[in-house]
Design brief:
- Strand 2 (78-82), helix 4 (109-116) and strand 3 (120-125) form a beta-alpha-beta unit.
- By secondary structure, this protein is α/β, with parallel strands linked by helices.
- The protein has a domain at 7-257: Amidase signature (AS) domain (Amidase signature (AS) enzymes), CATH 3.90.1300.
- Helix content is 38%, strand content 13%.
- It has 15 helices and 11 strands.
């Protein structure tokens, strides 16, 4: 065996090196990860759909490409896609009864990119229904469990991808982040999660939730892997009108620059009442480590409009969701109620039985905020405050290279703890939401543990400032080694 570590525990860059030097084959690696899925997914429940046969066929193609010298960093490495990204010929459910049998006729842009890079798609990851949730308990099929403690949540809405990477059920995964849905599960599962700048990665073929907030990004075992995956999926796409006309650099080149002299701001609004003491302690140790590495850390930064971010988000996101989810009417595709008296009754029953309670709650919130007489008071005002939140970040980045804060205010909580209290569940995203409102990039990296449960730190950058956040994250990761720990499944 070319490596002492089990194959399912390999990072992407280690797997790449072993594949390129022909010490292992893609078929061997894919089979090992599929065996890991067979062994643990009954307990973790990370996958909605596993496509093992197709994955092994792709692995065989990858081995031939590597043999012919026509391969790249992702060729032959098995991965997962969150189940809201379209995959031609493989069902895409959004973990909803509404799309339970939906098989897209086309690939999402990121799916195309990964296929052309030679990636091996193992299957689709469980999620909160239509990406609405912070614990993956809102899936219409089953909740996902945290590999570090199976009685706890993995975070959400990309809980399946986060848990799969942490449990060794995929070498890496793609998630989507509307208000923290990549970074929060990354924090709670002890992996690395990147929310790129809005528009850096095409949303074409991503089932829409909040169109001005959604962004696709990687969940990986370390920062190097995150940079490698972003290299493959970033770039302009004419099929997405919000895709930025920006030529991305090679993000791996920024990693080893060190952070001596880097100016780091710590927004005090993120360390507020309600954040667990253990999270504050881990953050303080992480900031001291960044100072040791030569960064200048200022703990007195203020982003004054941050306190309005949660309210702004829960007006804008449900408003966009209510518009986006209007297409599920039981006529064109997806679930359709058959026992109806007429067209209007059929539409009503389709939405009644096709959507789960959290999706219905957000549709109603959004419809109310957009309704006549309330539009100016809610939606318009929220958009104005959104501008103020973005300006706070712009002002901070005039002085600082990156900003650092906790990713999640808590360690992973127990399954069922917050399901009866939507407001408590919404507060789980209090540290991540401002980033989506402003459209800036942010990465969550493992920063420590409390009683065996992972805690993440997020590093935020200016728009298209991914290189600075990768540089900071890599320096911290290499100096601490939290990323080397694996869930004890």
């Amino acid at each position: 065996m070319a490596t002492s570590r089990p194959l399912h525990e390999l990072t992407l860059h280690d797997a790449r090196d072993l594949l390129q030097t022909r010490q292992i084959s893609s078929v061997e690696l894919t089979r090992a990860v599929l065996e890991r899925v067979d062994a643990v997914d009954e307990r973790v429940k990370a996958y909605v759909t596993v496509s093992g046969e197709a994955a092994l066929k792709q692995a065989g193609d990858a081995d031939r490409a590597i043999g012919a010298g026509a391969s790249g960093p992702l060729t032959g490495v098995p991965m997962m896609l969150k189940d809201n990204m379209c995959t031609r010929g493989l069902r895409t459910t959004c973990s909803s009864r509404m799309l339970e049998q939906f098989v897209p006729p086309y690939d999402a842009h990121v799916t195309e990119r990964l296929r052309s890079a030679g990636a091996v798609l193992l299957g689709k990851g469980n999620m909160d229904e239509f990406a609405m949730g912070s614990s993956t308990e809102n899936s219409a099929f089953f909740p996902t469990h945290n590999p570090w403690d199976l009685e706890r949540v993995p975070g959400g809405s990309s809980g399946g991808p986060g848990a799969a990477v942490a449990a060794g059920e995929a070498v890496y995964a793609l998630g989507s982040d509307t208000g923290g849905s990549i970074r929060q599960p990354a924090s709670l599962c002890g992996v690395v999660g990147l929310k790129p700048t809005y528009g850096l990665v095409s949303r074409y073929g991503l089932v829409a939730f909040g169109s001005s907030l959604d962004q696709i990004g990687p969940l990986t075992k370390d920062v190097t892997d995150s940079a490698l995956v972003l290299n493959a999926i970033a770039g302009h796409d004419p099929k997405d009108s919000t895709s930025a006309r920006y030529a991305p650099p090679d993000y791996t080149k920024a990693l080893a620059s060190g952070i001596k002299g880097l100016r780091i701001g710590v927004p005090k609004e993120y360390l507020v009442e309600g954040i667990q003491e253990e999270v504050v302690e881990v953050m303080e140790r992480a900031l001291s480590k960044l100072e040791e590495l030569g960064a200048q850390v200022d703990r007195e930064v203020s982003l004054p409009h941050t306190r309005y971010a949660l309210a702004v988000y829960y007006i804008i996101a449900p408003s966009e969701a209510s518009a986006n989810l209007a297409r599920y009417d039981g006529v064109k595709y997806g679930y359709s109620a058959q026992d109806a008296d007429d067209m209007w009754d059929a539409m009503e029953k389709t939405r009644q039985y096709g959507f789960g309670p959290e999706v219905k709650r957000r549709i109603m919130l959004g419809t109310y905020a957009l309704s006549a007489g309330y539009y100016d008071a809610y939606y318009l005002k929220a958009q104005k405050v959104r501008t103020l939140i973005r300006r706070d970040f712009e002002k901070a980045f005039e002085k600082y290279d990156v900003l650092v804060a906790p990713t999640s205010p808590t360690v992973p909580f127990k399954l069922g703890d917050k399901m009866s209290d939507p407001v408590q569940m919404y507060l789980s995203d209090i540290c991540t939401i401002p980033v989506n409102i402003a459209g800036i990039p942010s990465i969550s990296v493992p920063a420590g543990f409390s009683f065996g449960l992972p805690i993440g730190m997020q590093i935020m950058g200016r728009p298209f400032g991914e290189e600075a956040i990768f540089r900071t994250a890599y320096a911290y990761e290499q100096a601490t080694g939290w990323h080397n720990l694996r869930a004890p499944l």
